[in-house]
Give the backbone structure.
Amino acid sequence: MNQRTRRTLCTTLMACSLAVGPVTAARAVNAPAAGPSGSECFVEAKAGDATKATVTGGGFAKAKGKVFLDQTDGDGGGTATVGDDGTFTSGEVPAGKYVAFQQGGPRVNCVGGQEAQDIVNQKLILSEQTRGTNEGWAQGRKLAKSGACDAKAEPRTPNLHGLAADSEAQKKAEEAYKNAYSASFGKAIDFYCHH
């Protein structure tokens, strides 16, 4: 292999690893547990009445119809309508443990309490880290291509997308976003300005 071909190949491989690396790293963080189809389900106790709950979920197929809810530790149950976005919210059901399923689809164990809170928190942190990586790279690339090679990363205040994470998780998500944004931004500036 001659010197020019080797240099071109090496530069191309470095560009790909720099571009894909931050995104891959962001997605490598432990993803929350979900059913085999990517469906998930949560049981949330009703405020002020520990005997009642609401079951919510996502990743279900509207085309398959209603979601059936089966209480595994009692006689409760019900159905919920799946929205266009694949989510559902039940009406009030007796508090307890539930399984959600659709006709011809997988059964998903619904989680509640601290386990549900931990999943929501982790999803928020992961989504903000991924968003920071993508936005940091895009902004760094844009500025570098315009000749602003001395630009500094200025992460935007993240929009937490309305997820109900606790305050500690919101702080961790904001930190994950800023760190991912800054790292990606720096890699983009370095790649486009110094290669």
Remarks:
- Residues 40-104 form one domain.
- The longest strand covers residues 49-58.
